[in-house]
Specification:
CATH topology of the largest domain: Rossmann fold
Number of helices: 33
CATH architecture of the largest domain: 3-Layer(aba) Sandwich
Strand content: 5-15%
CATH superfamily of the largest domain: P-loop containing nucleotide triphosphate hydrolases
Number of domains: 5
Shape: globular
Helix content: 40-55%
Structural class: alpha/beta
CATH class of the largest domain: Alpha Beta
């Protein structure tokens, strides 16, 4: 058949049953059929796979589709076989096949039956496969998930770098690169690596107007918040992403014991279990999959109603691709991410072991994630700007679909500050990244600024009337406004745009929104300065509880925080426990704490509930998996035996700081721990007395306050251990 005479609409109807193409599909398919190298950026749900499947089905020969995941290949091959009477129309060629199966695939290709051959990049390297394919009629080579080629992409795979040379060995055929996400830098890298800088490029809009974006502060009670959220979507499908396998297992167990049909999915499970869990999700035998990022690529489930990120991802590309699995049918899709700077620190620590170039790239990608999480401007506008797309934040489709737009923060005039920022970019010869520009503006010197003698210039400290957080927020918003941009060749370096130069000549009003400000708690968690997250707290009840906390503390001769922590009071004002049994399910309250201090609190709450006709969510009790209680018992038993704390931590695979976290949880929930044997080796009697007295007289149990008070006389671990001793002795 002459490629020029193909009736694409008839072919679309015949093979896929659709009456019309979606978005850019028809233009992309024409480019492929006309034998042009083609590059496609099409967000998840845009119909990317049809762009190469249809041309393969209507042309002579076999199209090779390079794909990174076996699960993805299987999914697509099954789908193609489902629309054809010929079983051999699509095949996979990867490490999962035995010799007989490989011979069957080869025979079908030789007979001209196979139109689509899905291969992993590692398989394509094999010489016998290359030798075989050299003698076959190949229509084109499509590279799916093409961002894997770029080291600037979020899922770089070195084996993808060799694809150009291998394709040239097989045949001189058109190359098609496809990806759901790519920044300008990644796109350039892909085109160069594949040797297709002449490609016809097609870029669909990244806007998914049906998705709602929400970022919440990750509190200590994040599991309770997730359960509450998932219960709002009873019998609907959702995905929860975690960065570690351990966390995946933990969250899946918590959901299961709380009556939610959930399964884990990660690379540590055997292939059979992974396939089973994937099928259970697709067939709706379970509602929720808790997964690492290994899950979801190529999983075509259109009615995923929510995607939760328990841990913030390593890049905005990852975030966008993973949230894109929600609402692919055009229906509701809620994208909820939990943000904690402690998680960012973990990711930074992980990067620190990598080569310098990789660290540089990883940190740049991470800064964008931080910017997205902390910004108070439209999240959709911020996200689309990252992918090089301008978005009308007032009239654009989906403009109101994010937490920042629904709950706007205060805006302030920043015309003079924008002018100062642009002047400093110009005066420093456009050679600094955002963090160095901020240091220049507030007048804080570092080695780089010193080497350029920036600290000796008149403009150094030009913006010291504002703090670093202010300037960081302003830079993000000025970037999105298009007055500055990040240089593509020197990733992260801020340069002026023509409209930025124009602004310097004619400054105009510029309103900036104040960023969310997060304070690190001494446990490393974050407390947002504005409300949001876990649920509505009853302000009247919290005041009554705090008054009671003070009077109970006075009566017992202890500081208020030793009775119940503030997070526990907030949880009470959210869940309204009216008896001691319910009180034990409040965050940070164990049996000991409930029996020692609980009665007046539950009596007050019961009276308040009755007088104010409060409707309580009585079914909402987060059940524990029992994992923590086993660890708690182990710690109590071994501290009783005076086993060194370092040995207890090692035996449970914990870091020393993590063990202290666990011990804190134990004593704050009302159980005694005797760690005198450990503290006596660290501090003498007088030092202990000094710290003990501090905690007795202080209004706060924050470690940072104690560090400030003692001005370096004691380190953080010593103070945390003494706080455990103090709470154990006076409050339990």
């Amino acid at each position: 058949m002459d490629n020029k005479t193909i009736d694409l609409h008839a072919a679309l109807k015949k093979h896929f049953g659709f009456d019309k193409f979606k978005g850019l599909q028809e233009e992309v398919i024409k480019s492929i059929i006309e034998k042009h190298n083609t590059f496609v950026i099409m967000p998840t749900g845009g119909g990317k796979s049809l762009c190469y499947q249809l041309p393969a089905l209507v042309q002579e020969g076999t199209a090779i589709v390079v794909s990174p995941l076996i699960a993805l290949m299987k999914n697509q091959v099954d789908a193609i076989r489902g629309i054809s009477a010929e079983y051999g129309i699509a095949h996979v060629l990867n490490s999962s096949l035995n010799k007989t199966e490989v011979n069957l695939v080869k025979a079908d290709i030789e007979r001209g039956v196979t139109k689509l051959l899905y291969v992993a990049p590692e398989s394509l390297i094999k010489e016998d496969y290359v030798d075989f394919l050299q003698n076959q009629k190949i229509s084109f080579v499509a590279i799916d998930e093409a961002h894997c080629i770029s080291e600037w992409g979020h899922d770089f795979r070195p084996e993808y770098r060799n694809l150009k040379a291998i394709i040239q060995k097989i045949d001189d055929v058109p190359i098609i690169g496809l990806t759901a996400t790519a920044t300008e830098k990644v796109e350039e890298d892909i085109l160069k690596s594949l040797g297709i800088t002449d490609a016809n490029s097609f870029k669909a809009s990244f806007n998914r107007p049906n998705l709602f974006y929400d970022v919440r502060n990750k509190t200590a009670n994040v599991n309770g918040d997730i359960i509450r959220f998932v219960r709002q979507y009873a019998n609907k499908s959702g995905i929860i992403y975690c960065l570690s396998r351990k966390k995946v297992e933990e969250i899946a167990q918590v959901l299961q014991v709380n009556g939610i049909k959930a399964v884990p999915y990660h690379a540590g499970l055997d292939a059979k279990t992974r396939a089973k869990h994937q099928d259970m999700f697709l067939m709706e035998d379970v509602d929720v999959v808790v997964a690492t990022i290994a899950f979801g690529m190529g999983i075509d489930k259109p009615d995923v109603r929510f995607v939760i990120h328990h841990d913030i991802p390593k890049s905005l590309e990852s975030y966008y691709q993973e949230t894109g699995r929600a609402g692919r049918d055009g229906g509701e899709g809620y994208c909820l991410a939990y943000y904690s700077y402690k998680d960012i620190e973990k990711l930074e620590k992980f990067l620190s072991g990598k080569p310098i170039a990789e660290q540089e790239i990883g940190n740049s990608l991470l800064q964008e994630v931080i910017g997205y999480a902390e910004t108070s401007m439209s999240r959709r506008k911020y996200l689309l700007h990252y992918f090089g797309e301008e978005f009308d934040g007032i009239n654009g489709l989906g403009a109101s679909m994010d937490d920042n737009v629904r709950n706007p923060k205060k805006k302030v005039e920043a015309k003079d500050e924008v002018k100062k920022l642009l002047e400093v970019v110009k005066l420093t010869n456009q050679k600094y990244k955002a963090k160095d520009l901020v240091k220049t503006l507030v007048g804080k010197v570092n080695a780089l600024l010193k080497s350029h003698k920036t600290d000796e210039q008149a403009y150094f400290g030009l913006g010291k009337s504002h703090d670093s957080k202010y300037w960081t927020a302003l830079i993000r918003q000025v970037l999105v406004s298009g007055y500055i941009k990040k240089d593509i060749e020197q990733y992260g370096v801020i340069v002026l745009t023509p409209s930025g130069l124009e602004y310097l000549k004619n400054p105009e009003s510029f309103f900036m929104t104040e960023d969310h400000i997060y304070d690190a708690g001494d446990d490393g968690s974050l407390i947002a300065n504005d409300k949001g997250g876990a649920g509505a707290i009853d302000d009247i009840l919290i005041k009554l509880l705090k008054d009671l906390q003070k009077s109970v503390a006075k009566k017992n001769g202890v500081p208020p925080y030793a009775v119940f922590q503030e997070t526990s009071l907030e949880d009470m004002a959210n869940k309204y426990p009216i008896n001691l049994e319910e009180l034990k399910n409040i965050y940070g309250v164990g049996e000991g704490k409930a029996s020692k201090f609980g009665k007046p609190f539950v009596d007050l709450i019961a009276k308040y509930v009755e007088e104010n006709d409060i409707i309580r969510a009585e079914d909402f009790v987060v059940k524990s998996t029992g994992v923590n209680s086993a660890l708690k018992l182990y710690i109590i038993q071994n501290t009783d035996r005076k086993i060194p704390l370092v040995d207890i931590a090692k035996s449970k695979g914990l870091g020393f700081s993590e063990l202290i976290d666990e011990m804190q949880r134990i004593v704050y929930s009302g159980t005694k721990l005797n760690i005198d044997y450990c503290i006596d080796n660290l501090l003498d009697e007088e030092q202990q007395e000094k710290i003990f007295q501090y905690f007795m007289e202080s209004d706060s149990d924050r470690i940072q306050d104690a560090l400030d008070e003692f001005k370096g006389d004691f380190d953080e671990e010593e103070l945390r251990l003494m706080r455990i001793k103090f709470i154990s002795k006076v409050a339990n």
